Amino acid sequence: MSVLRPHIIERVMARRGRLHWFDALNPRTSALIVIDMQDTFCAPSAPAEVPGSREIVAPINAFASAFRALGGQVVWVLHANDHAGEGANLRSDWELFFNHVVADEVRARTIESLAPGAQKVWSGLEQDARDLTIFKNRYSALISGSSGLERAMRSMGIDTLLIAGTKTNVCCESTARDAMMLDFKTIMLSDCCAALSFEEHRATLETFVQQFGDVLTSDEALKLFKP
């Protein structure tokens, strides 16, 4: 069942005459971008826990396995921020976020949990030697200075990005919007993304499909890949 509500589908159909953006995709010029599936967001009682992130582990694993078999590239994007000092003098390389978004009582825990060198893909996810791991230090992995994702994709001839991970409405959405602005064909995989609530998840996907790219389930996306 589509996560998109009927009135959104009707609006899209009235505007462009079709719901989905793409009729076919080339797996060899496509990449699955799995965002922030790491302890800080996936572990129970973690400082930035998204409980729903653990529910998308199985669909991500299933899609990644099938996608690799078609010749697609899997990329794990993990968040990390440099920091220095301790106690009251603890500073991060993203002070705007840590000083205004994160509550004082969890600030230090969050900064420490995102330390470079400590980040790894969540244990329930299945990696492959052919996969890439890239680190970002802002919500979007595609803004200038955040990560090397764009350069890696361009160098590999990738023109299509499929977005998975958490949160749907924060880092996944930020990266996906920037991907479209950089002229990548962009798809958000609805059953492979998680937010703190279904309402936030759906609102993001409904906005995205209207203006920024496609929204598909992992099974729907696999059917588009043509050798």
- The total beta strand count reads 8
Number of continuous helical runs: 9
Mean pLDDT: 92
Task: Provide the β-strand percentage band.
Answer: 15-25%
Taken from the alpha-carbon principal axes, the silhouette is globular
SSE pattern: HEHHEEEHHEHEHEHEH
Structural class: alpha/beta
Q: Could you give a short account of the major beta sheet?
A: 6 strands, parallel
- In which range does the helix fraction lie? 25-40%
For the termini, the CA-CA separation is 27 Å
Strand order, main sheet: write it out.
5-2-1-6-7-8
Radius of gyration: 17 Å
Task: Give the uncertain stretches in residue-range form.
Answer: none
Question: What does it look like?
Answer:
The structure is a single chain. With 227 residues, the protein is an alpha/beta fold. 38% of the residues lie in helices and 19% in strands. The strands form 2 sheets. The chain has a 6-stranded parallel sheet with strand order 5-2-1-6-7-8, with helices on both faces. It is globular, with a radius of gyration of 17 Å. The model has no long low-confidence stretch (mean pLDDT 92).
Features of this protein?
227 residues, alpha/beta, six-stranded parallel beta sheet, two-stranded antiparallel ribbon
Question: What is this structure's SSE topology?
Answer:
Blueprint: H1 6-16, E1 30-35, H2 39-42, H3 57-69, E2 73-79, E3 83-84, E4 91-92, H4 95-100, H5 104-113, E5 132-136, H6 149-155, E6 160-166, H7 168-181, E7 185-194, H8 198-211, E8 214-216, H9 218-224
Parallel strand pairs: 1-2, 1-6, 2-5, 6-7, 7-8
Antiparallel strand pairs: 3-4
